[in-house]
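Shipment paperwork, digital attachment
Item: protein structure file
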Amino acid sequence: MAPETDEKAPAERYVGNLLLPLLILVLAGVCFVQTFDFPGGDDVGPAAVPYLWMFFTSIFCVVLMVQAAARRGKPDPVPGKVGFVILFVVWLVAYLAAIDTVGYFVSSFVFLVGSMYVLTYRNHVVIFTVAASWVVFAYYVFAQFLFIPLPVGPLLRPILE
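Attachment content:
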């Protein structure tokens, strides 16, 4: 089933449909450049999976940009709470910065609890259960099973190391 076409929508109503895939394509390019530092080898190296992701992401983004340029599909929605998006981006940057200082597990727990609360979910039992479950899952799968070192931080270092 083809997406509905809105012939009456002006071209500027498709700018977001064009910019988002373009931004994702630029990020895929940045990731591609970062793979140059990966160790190489004769067989499939550590960059193989990122290359596959970048390839399919690039194809998908180009298709979306062609659709936006042809004004097919739904136009951009009416702008909403842009300040909320900016606030959430700042919250995400703070979370990423806290991973190195506080540790992955504590910062992830706080990030998940805070995010769910800001997104107006108010069932505290579910909020804390989901956050704690994710931290326990991440610890056992990544740190114990896959031996991927995650930043522990000063609060949990006496317990986990």
